[in-house]
Design goal:
It contains 9 helices and 14 strands. Helix 1 packs across helix 8, helix 5 packs antiparallel against helix 6 and helix 5 packs across helix 8. It is α/β, with parallel strands linked by helices. It has 2 domains: 141 residues, NAD(P)-binding Rossmann-like Domain (Rossmann fold), CATH 3.40.50.720; 160 residues, L-2-Hydroxyisocaproate Dehydrogenase, Chain A, domain 2 (Alpha-Beta Complex). The mean pLDDT is 96. Strands 3-2-1-4-5-6 form a 6-stranded parallel beta sheet, with helices on both faces. A 3-stranded antiparallel beta sheet has the order 7-10-11, covered by helices on one side. The chain has a 3-stranded antiparallel beta sheet with strand order 12-13-14. The protein is globular, with a radius of gyration of 19 Å. The structure holds adenosine-5-diphosphoribose. Adenosine-5-diphosphoribose binds next to helix 1 and helix 3.
Length: 310
Amino acid sequence: MSKKVSIIGAGMTGSTTAHWLAQREIADLVLVDVVEGMPEGKALDLLEAMPVIGKDVSITGAGGAGFEATAGSDIIVITAGLPRKPGMSRDDLLAANSEIVGKVAEETIKLSPDAIYIVLTNPLDVMTYLTWKKTGLPPNRVIGQAGILDSARMRAFVALALNVSVENINCYVLGGHGDSMVPLTRHSNVAGVPLHKTMSAELLDGIVERTRSGGGEIVKLLKQGSAYYAPSAAIAQMVEAILKDKQLIVPAAVYMQGEYGLKDIYFGAPAQLGANGVEKIIEYDLNDEEMAALKQSAEGVAANTAKLGL
Ligand code: APR
């Protein structure tokens, strides 16, 4: 296959991303991890599934942080790092994960100078900023995955509450990927009907709250590790949008250059994804309350980004 996607961090999210991508048959896949043998083993296992599902995809693994295997990648996905433990916030991971992500970005860009990066490691907005700085790429080529996931959680909860197909439900969650994320209920709808007209205010408030703490709900249940099926499905959608130049509009962590009155942070906003990565950032018409919530979320992200000292 002519396209190559390398996934750095072959843990739960990285290997599940490979699983979703292999099913799509859109790129050859390389799994890299600091652990020896594990990415090779997972890659081989997945490769042996290809005859069963009828997909011709090359899948290889490289342990011991064997970055050479990633040379010439079209897309680099970064999921390397520590996941949360119960009671931890995403921000608690900042120090440990910035060391890992910074090194991954520096090593991989040397081998794939034309790649587009999709970052998943938490704290997401800050790790995406770090990747942008360390790679020296233009900001449209470095994107963070968060908004598709947060919006998908909200869509799933609405579908459960209303017994309507998930395909009919459009929800938009913007802002930082943390407790201050901003579910835009006014812009969300069920087959065109505004969300607030489909349910009581109390039910809607409950869904908003559950969306905000959706990641934590899973961390608490798992007791070890964090969510990976939905986060990796979201990465696969972004990879596909870029490789197929779909011009798909999804919420993602993107570099703000004045949009929504924000500058010099990576932050969740609707972004049009295509062959060049972020082709365009869409600006919604927001009311004062929505703008205030976004501003509050941005202040938290900016404060954490400043901790990188870049
Ligand atoms: N280079 C390559 N891989 C590394 C490095 C490194 N320097 N450091 C750690 N890793 C690997 C680990 O060995 C592990 O296999 O990253 C992988 C992370 O996988 P998991 O521990 O299973 O974590 P996962 O659930 O996939 O989450 C990864 O994504 O959603 C976020 O908060 C989550 O930051 C976390 C990240």
